[in-house]
Amino acid sequence: MDIIEEAIEAFSQLPGIGPKSAKRIVYSLLSSPQKGKKIEGAIERLSGEITFCKICGNVSDGEVCKICSDPSRENEICVVGRPLDVMSFEKTGVYRGKYHVLGGLIDPMSGIGPEDLKIRELKERVEKEGAKEVILALDSTVEGEATSAFIASFLKGSTKISRLASGMPVGSELEYTDELTLSRALTDRMRES
Amino acid sequence: MDIIEEAIEAFSQLPGIGPKSAKRIVYSLLSSPQKGKKIEGAIERLSGEITFCKICGNVSDGEVCKICSDPSRENEICVVGRPLDVMSFEKTGVYRGKYHVLGGLIDPMSGIGPEDLKIRELKERVEKEGAKEVILALDSTVEGEATSAFIASFLKGSTKISRLASGMPVGSELEYTDELTLSRALTDRMRES
């Protein structure tokens, strides 16, 4: 049954899917082929119709994405690592500016340096568009912090630069909050009055 | 970005994949289209080349599956609920007989009765093939137990009928074993000497 083993192997390549889940998925596709058809079609459209915006690097169905070509968007740039992160911010409905997708984070262990990311392009954009603020919205990890620090110094003087707040997740309990998060929440505490 | 939302929706239909995992999968396919191609091809081959064996009901790449057409297989029938279960037994390498896939379990809550499963076909096979043993290898759940009980009484007198042993999973600790499993392990205890 090489075809089934091959299909399991193909699904195991996806993020978050191990061999066991892949097996369940493949057998579920065998018993409901219409699900498979839907996925086939979706993948085809993804590869055929989705490209990357030449301005911000986000996924797009044209040369320039809907956000970059929207004149009502404010002239500030939220810098994120991956296209996925843009979607997360858009879902909040709070942010009304534009984005810049770096295409990753600085990670010397994996051989990713600043020149591998769209950092030079960010600087050019900031100057060209006269962005009034750059918001660094990168992961709260070693790589994210290093990338933020690098960009902050690289852009220094060209515009206002800010970072996402760090602290306790909304709805979390003190008891279950790790020490690093707690100490950051304490250091960055907000004045109430 | 309807295409992306549609793709996320399509992947969310798969077992064990929620909207968050689906989102990660879709964005990973956007950055590595060759993974998508592999999955597309796998799904195509699954739907085009895999069918169900007319004897045992397992997945097959021909009218009769490799196991049913293997003369070296012993003349006993292991009864399972789904094709997936056949793979699990084959992986053990211990079983050298044949299989019979019921296509589900008796589940009155979902409206699945004995007539919806391949139970009549099982009886016909047992008689036709003169199977020397039927091993009931169904889930250790209410539905599985009910189905086993039904089949055991339905086949009574036609051949030897056995069930998988219940008990403590190998490698498990008493402290973390639930009461039902423990009491079953005690009831079904094996004589050592």
What does this structure look like?
The structure is a homodimer of 193-residue chains. Chain A has 193 residues and is an alpha/beta fold. Chain A has 2 domains: 2-49, Helicase, Ruva Protein, domain 3; 73-163, Dna Topoisomerase Vi A Subunit, Chain: A, domain 2 (3-Layer(aba) Sandwich), CATH 3.40.1360. The first copy, chain A, is built from 7 helices and 6 strands; from the N terminus they run αααβββαβαβαβα. Chain A has a 4-stranded parallel β-sheet. The radius of gyration of chain A is 21 Å and the shape is globular.
Supply the key terms.
193 residues, alpha/beta, globular, 2 domains, two-stranded antiparallel sheet, four-stranded parallel beta sheet, 44% helix, Dna Topoisomerase Vi A Subunit, Chain: A, domain 2, homodimer
